[in-house]
């Protein structure tokens, strides 16, 4: 099958803009938060207008640019799980590609922050990094939650393999795995996929978590806060949703969003890359279970999940005070001005009630 670059405008329309402008990492000097300025992704004012729809998104029929047979039209393949054959062949189960219109790119130089001689100081970097797409299934109409546990395990393994590659490159300091489902959660393609973004800086959120975990460790007899949470919650049960031999899902004690769920390994590990084969299988099973429950409870809601793990540099390998986890947030409410202004979130559903509700969902 030949690839028609005009067949999938939602994927190809901004690819030609890449490289025409220099994207940047900029640091807010007030709160020291990094932001990616990526106007090369081609957003025009009209692109931000929303059209009313009776559903979260208008489901687009296949095939699309992520479907088998269109491999030559995507970004370069960096990893794949396939039955055999050559790279870019169509016999794959999971395929990782370079995002064709990325937020960051390895085409940009990697260097130190530069100053402007103004109030902003040394606050700018070229947007060096890596932005990849994980195409989770060759089947256009198969949602991630409907994949067999073994196939979900392949997706989780793909995340690991790419993170291991980035860890070997000293230019990368941080890696974020994330999945957006639904337009309101940030997805622009309906074909099931997730993304991996690696950066030369450690983000504000990651630094905050590391600082909080280290402070707890130092003031509580060198104990990991996540290990203590797992120990407490598996005894009290009031915020536990599900549990298997190696993982728990729970509603966190102070969630920012209703029905937010964390998936936490029972074994202490600060780095997602260190999870072994048996643990990945166990993780895939409990992840599928909580996603099934979300779909039953809220009729296939848009959601995000992110894998929170220690930074990539060698100093952050096997940290005794940090513990990787997966955070799942269904999009059920709209944030208002108070949350935006204060950073303090109003959650209309207590985590204990949310956990009880999700725990009691029965799957047919």
Automatic annotation (TrEMBL):
Domain Galactose-1-phosphate uridyl transferase N-terminal as annotated: residue spans: 24-200
Keywords: Carbohydrate metabolism, Metal-binding, Nucleotidyltransferase, Transferase, Zinc
Keyword Manganese: no
Organism domain of life: Eukaryota
Cofactor: Zn(2+)
Native organism: Sphagnum jensenii
Domain Galactose-1-phosphate uridyl transferase C-terminal: from-to ranges: 216-326
Pfam families: GalP_UDP_tr_C (PF02744), GalP_UDP_transf (PF01087)
Protein name: UDP-glucose--hexose-1-phosphate uridylyltransferase
UniProt cross-references to SUPFAM superfamilies, sorted A to Z: HIT-like (SSF54197)
Family that this chain belongs to: Belongs to the galactose-1-phosphate uridylyltransferase type 1 family.
